[in-house]
Amino acid sequence: MEPIDDVRVVTNRSSGGTGIELARTAFEHGADVELWLGRHEVPVPPWLPYKSFETTEDLASMAEKTDADICVVPAAVADFSPVKKQTGKIPSRKGTLTLDLEPTPKLLGRFRKGTRKALVGFKAEAGVGEAELKSRAMTLAKEADLDFVVANDVSKVKGDTTSITIFDRKGHSETFEGSKSLAAERVWRAVLHGVRG
């Protein structure tokens, strides 16, 4: 979330469900897990340890302190932030409101320094074909030095059902369609044992 004023924010439609499922799955398989969670609609199991962040800047500060064997970053942080945050609440009866937005910094690469074995990023797109999805995923992998990219077309996400393609850094891939909990299992299997494409 990126603040517009003290009441309103720029955000996206991400529910936090993917991150929670990935953390839950790893925890249930015996991993030492710490979930970093932004705005979310899905409840966090009370036994799952987590830290909260609000803005891209907050997550950037946390990323600099990464210390993990495997770091999975499904966070759907805002791509844009208001140039200037207004103090208080902008009056709603003043007519139209124009926001000047600037790109937020790209964060995935910042997790690399503190990640010892595998860094996994996510690439959400909308309305793109398979070839374009792969191209964008591989560009992200190269730019952020990722070991794996989990890519999906968000127009195919419905409730707890998702469709993902997991790419390794060489471009090998496997696709899965089903529940988010089973998708989390597939992501972990690919990270631990390689893509079966």
Can you walk through the features of this model?
The structure is a single chain. It is globular and about 55 Å long. The model has no long low-confidence stretch (mean pLDDT 92). The chain is 25% helix and 27% strand. The protein has one domain: Rossmann fold (3-Layer(aba) Sandwich). 27% of the residues are buried. The protein has four helices and eleven strands; from the N terminus they run ββαββαββββαβββα. With 197 residues, the chain is of the alpha/beta class. The strands form four sheets. A five-stranded mixed sheet has the order 5-8-9-10-11, with helices on both faces.
Key traits:
197 residues, alpha/beta, Rossmann fold, two-stranded antiparallel sheet, 4 helices, globular
Would you state the CATH class? Alpha Beta
Strand content is 25-35%
Uncertain spans: none
Q: What's the N-to-C terminus distance?
A: 36 Å
- As for the CATH topology, it is Rossmann fold
Known CATH architecture: 3-Layer(aba) Sandwich
Instruction: Tell me the total number of β-strands.
Output: 11
- Let me know the average pLDDT: 92
The CATH superfamily is CoaB-like
Question: What general form does the structure show?
Answer: globular
Helix-and-strand structural type: alpha/beta
Tell me the number of helical segments per DSSP (H or I, 4 or more residues long): 4
Q: Main beta sheet, described?
A: 5 strands, mixed
Radius of gyration: 17 Å
Give the helix proportion (percent range): 10-25%
Order of adjacent strands in the largest pleated sheet: 5-8-9-10-11
Order of helices and strands: EEHEEHEEEEHEEEH
